[in-house]
Design goal:
Helix content is about 65%, strand content about 0%. The protein is an all-alpha fold. α8 (about 195-210) runs antiparallel to α9 (about 220-240). Bound molecules: 2-acetamido-2-deoxy-beta-D-glucopyranose (3 copies).
Amino acid sequence: MILAENPGRSNVDPLWIGPQHRDKEPSSSLIMTSSTALLFCAALLCFLVCSCVGTTPPAVARKPCEYNEIKRCNQQFKQVFLDAKNPGGRNIPIAWKRVYCRALQTFMNCLEQSLASCVGGDWLQNYSFVVLEHGVMDKKCGVCPRHDYSNLERVMHATNKSDYVGFDVCPSCAKGVHRRCVRRFLHKMAADSNICHDVQEFISCYKEEGNPKRSCATTKIIRNFSTLCTKLGEKMLQEDKTHPGLMC
Ligand SMILES: *[C@@H]1O[C@H](CO)[C@@H](O)[C@H](O)[C@H]1NC(C)=O
Ligand SMILES: *[C@@H]1O[C@H](CO)[C@@H](O)[C@H](O)[C@H]1NC(C)=O
Ligand SMILES: *[C@@H]1O[C@H](CO)[C@@H](O)[C@H](O)[C@H]1NC(C)=O
């Protein structure tokens, strides 16, 4: 079933250049098909095993445009920081906060466009949701009060998702958490220009803050966003290992 699906992929993403594309000789097609099937089963088994271990992303069919769009938007996000390199002053986090807000807004705007041009991709949807929630946290928790994500929220039908934090309030302890995690992200960025390391720092911060022993972890907004960071955010970051250059 899955085999029959693959030859139909016209705009072949490097990911899909698998054994099935060697299957060109009609004379040997029977042998090739069975060996292809065998290879495919082996790959599938490997995937199943690996995904249980949690190191490999799900091998759901992904559209090439999802990769292109995620890469494009990541580049736009990074470019804002590059353009503002060394905004001056000794207190890097404060000087970079405005840059950070602009970068996040750029990211959200970019993904909003992507969702219009690359329709139906589960992965792009998930990715956009994480970025949107990040933007919501920025706005609700007072780091970037001028964020505008109403269009992205609408195109994603975000308000229908159970863990959407767009209706939640950000109590003062949560404001402290978000400020702390953004500060950690910016400090990391000042020392390490690899954006994946910087984002990992942000996610690690939220993982720590989401620990039930922490006093603010019981608030809905922190609990839900921390869960999202752990479940989806980190998984997405790991995609860069499989597809170098996608994000970092
Ligand atoms: C998207 O997120 C949902 C819910 O977390 C998950 O079940 C699904 O596998 C994800 N899809 C992709 C392609 O990552
Ligand atoms: C969102 O949820 C409401 C109420 O549950 C439903 O009427 C509406 O169709 C949903 N919208 C989308 C786009 O899924
Ligand atoms: C979101 O927070 C609520 C309230 O704490 C909780 O009941 C729910 O399970 C959380 N959802 C996720 C996905 O973390």
